[in-house]
Amino acid sequence: MINRRVIVKIPASTANLGPGFDTLGMALSLYAWIEMTVSEQTEFQFYGDQMKGLPKDKSNLIYKVAQLVFKEAGVQVPELSISMHSDIPLTRGLGSSASAIVGALVAANALIGSPLTDDKLFQMATALEGHPDNVGASLFGGIIVAAWDGERADYMRIEPNERLATLVAIPAFQLSTEKARHALPSQVSMADAVFNVGRSSLLVAALASGELGMIRYAMKDRLHQPYRAALIPGMSTILERAVEHGALGVALSGAGPTLIAFVDAKAYAEQLEPFLIDTLKQEGIEANTLWLSPCVQGPQVTVEDISKQPAIPLPDRIKGEM
Questions:
Q1: DSSP per residue over 81-130, as a string?
Q2: What pLDDT digit, counting tens, does each position of 285-299 carry?
């Protein structure tokens, strides 16, 4: 353990997928990297614009999550050297906190020889995040259907159809999950609950069977998106009209403000990107767009012997992957 260096590459994620509030998630081909070693004193190196302002002491989330792993495994590793680079924008609805939690759990577990099972890491990640969709997607890759009763999380994984692609529009402002959740009502009607059960079930069946044409009917929602629309000007128009511009379906990604459109990679959707950008711009919102494919892998772990491998700064190590 003392001579071990662990590098973990973790995918971003999108959650809810419309009707699957806190239950559906999908890993995306956008990544964060965490490097962890045992050290004489705790130190941090953060790289990338997404990492500015994060604490560089033992209050850091990655350090605290790693200590939970060590405690669960019955070992003591009080001092760590942690480096991180992330291409996942913070508080934009693309699972930045989930990727940090999963990356810290996996890296710390690998550092001590992986005594904890993937299921144990999933349970810990779900309890930390408060819902299983983002963490499940980042931990297992692909599409995750999950349920959590406050004590145990269970999941099933769906392999994404090879034709499935996504286009995300990332507005140039942050929206905290806490603020987005405060916009939700404390109760919903039976009619809305039944509506979402039906649409969520239909969406799972469509994704599992590869019937991509059904997505446009299945990605409708009455539990969270109508209440959050006021926080993201232009969102309602995009939800209503994106299919007219080539999307299979569109949803708020996680708690937002990012919007994600599902696309058939073999179809023609040239009008979709300008539609998303122009609709938000009409509301005074600048946005970046990214074409992202589903990521079918969970964390990719590299374990090295420090005594045999020279220390290379994390950005240089991952330069070809960013």
A1: EEEEEE-SPTTSSS-HHHHHHHHHHHHHHHHTT--S-HHHHHHHHHHHHS
A2: 999 999 999 999 999
Question: Against a cut of 0.90, is the pTM above it?
Answer: yes
Q: What is the pLDDT of residue 91?
A: 83
Residue 141 tokens read as 């890759």
CATH assignment at residue 128:
3.30.230.10
pLDDT of 2 reads: 67
Q: Could you list the residue range(s) of the whole structural domain that residue 129 is in?
A: 4-159+296-317
Q: Residues in the chain with pLDDT < 70?
A: 1-2, 320, 322
How far is the C-alpha of 96 from the C-alpha of 86, rounded, in Å? Answer: 9
Q: How far apart are CA 65 and CA 313, in angstroms?
A: 23
Edge-first strand listing for the sheet containing 164-171: 249-252, 259-264, 164-171, 287-292
Same domain membership, residue 115 and residue 28: yes
In this structure, the dihedral spanned by the alpha carbons of residues 101, 102, 108 and 109, taken in order and rounded to 10 degrees, is 140
Distance (Å, whole) CA 220 – CA 104: 34
Q: How many domains does the chain have?
A: 2
What does the pLDDT look like over 15-55, one tens digit per residue? 999 999 999 999 999 999 999 999 999 999 998 777 777 88
Residue 322 maps to a domain = no
Whether 215 and 144 share a structural domain? no
